[in-house]
Every structure is written in C-alpha cells, then in structure tokens.
Amino acid sequence: MSAVPEPKSPKALLSADACRAIDREITKYPADQKQSAVLAALAIAQSELGWISKDVMEEVARYLDMPAIAVYEVASFYTMYNLQPTGKFKITICTNLPCALSGATRAAEHLKKRLGVGFNETTPDGYFTLKEGECMGACGDAPVLLVNNTRMESFMSDNKLDALLEQLKQAR
Fold first, then answer.
1. pTM of the model
2. What gap in Å lies between CA 22 and CA 17, rounded to an integer?
3. What's the rounded Cα separation, in Å, for the pair 101 and 63?
4. Per DSSP, which regions of the chain are E strands?
5. What are all long-range contacts of 70-76, with beta carbons under 8 Å and residues at least 24 apart?
6. HSE value, Cβ hemisphere, 13 Å, CA-based, for 159
7. Second label for 65, Cα 20 to 30 Å away, from 3, 94, 95, 171?
8. Does residue 8 register a pLDDT over 70?
9. For 22-74, how does the pLDDT look when each residue is reduced to its tens digit (9 = 90+)?
C-alpha cells in the first residue's frame, strides 16, 4: 500500500485537514473539472477560517487550478460566503418578494432595532451580524432566516425573533 502524499496549500492559509476535505470534494467530479468543487472549497475554507479573504480566494483558485477572478465571482455572488469577518452569529433574513409580502420587511426592521445595526453590520460586542439574503427556498414558511448558514428559522414573528436572540445570547 503506497502512502498518500500530504495535501499542501501554497500559502498555508488552509490546514492540511481543509485541503484533504477539498480533495474529497474534487473526487466527486471528472479529473479535468476539479473547478466544479469551488463552492465546497469555499465553504470548507470559511468553516475553518470564519470568512473568505482575498488571499483565501487566491489560494482556493491555485488549489483548483482556476483564475482567481472566477473564485471571487462565485464567492461574491452567494450570500452564504462571508467576505469580511462577521459576528459569532450571522443572521441572514430573506427579503425576496414572497418573504417581504409575508412580513420579512417588518421582521428585518425589528431585528435592526433590537440589534442596533443595519444590514451588513455587526453589533459592537461582536456577537451578531445582520445580513439580507436571497431566496432560501422556504417561501411557504415566510418570513425565514438563517443563523450561521446552517440553522433555518421560519414564521418569524417579533416574539419569535426576540426569543431567538435571547437563545443565541445564552449560547455565547
């Protein structure tokens, strides 16, 4: 049995574990299409580092043998990628038309007031960042929001928003 070489990242911004995870994603695509793993590679990098800097995008581009601008285009298009540091809890509320018609505008204003920040801002204590998001595929549950891209909350009334914020504060 031959030893598998340790994955190496050119600038060492990503750990060997992250590179191995990206390598696993690359195997899901034909050998000549490893760039198809860009979404997963960015998610892995963000999971490890908390956000995606220009240097990280360039490293992912080198790792996947693709132009850095192509990685930047992907990272800047999707709201799930953080292109700057965020608070411990990133709250992304859907403001597309179906959610807006079902109370998302009201919910967003309630969150802004309660947190004392606007969209793309972080509370002074560094715990909450508020983001405006696009469709989350749950129009029937509107208004909806995501916490840290992994937890979806539905039917967000002011009372449910207040309870969520209190729950997250307790998890600090």
1. 0.77
2. 9
3. 43
4. 89-94, 121-122, 128-133, 145-147, 151-153
5. 70/35, 70/38, 71/38, 71/42, 74/38, 74/39, 74/42, 75/42
6. 0
7. 3
8. no
9. 999 999 999 999 999 999 999 999 999 999 999 999 999 999 999 999 999 99
